[in-house]
Write a structure and sequence with these properties.
2 domains; Immunoglobulin-like; 4-stranded antiparallel β-sheet; 15% helix; 156 residues
Length: 156
Amino acid sequence: MWKLLPVCLLVSCAAVDQQGSDSDGDQSESARVVRQVQLSLGAPSPRGAGDQPSRRSFQIKGVQGWLDETGAWNTKVEVHHRRLRCAVYETGIQLGRGSPACSNVTWLTGIEYGTRLRHCNSASRVHAGSGTFSHAVDRPEAVNCLRVVVRCEGTC
């Protein structure tokens, strides 16, 4: 009898896990925002060598990047996955205009995502991505705020 106990527990846990994954299936089909940070952009840096566009940088714990006057951007965002089962995370940014503290922001663009990475086993990863806001911002100097967004699909 005691020899069968571990087998019964194993089968019982597998059945519970299967039921959990069925109910998670509906949630995992759509991505959801799990983190967002609003930041103000720094002052533009002077033009670099070779007529490099001037850049404005942003940084807060776990998030850093820049936006240049042509609309090109680059980010590095630490993303922490707190589950054993896998999920897919994406990071992106959105540009806006608001008060110096970035309250009451009018968002001028949609969210542009630059990374898509799979996390498993409580892993933390750095998402390094880039992109370009091509025609969405007519006057990049009017942008003074941005939002960094992390969204997740799966067991988040």
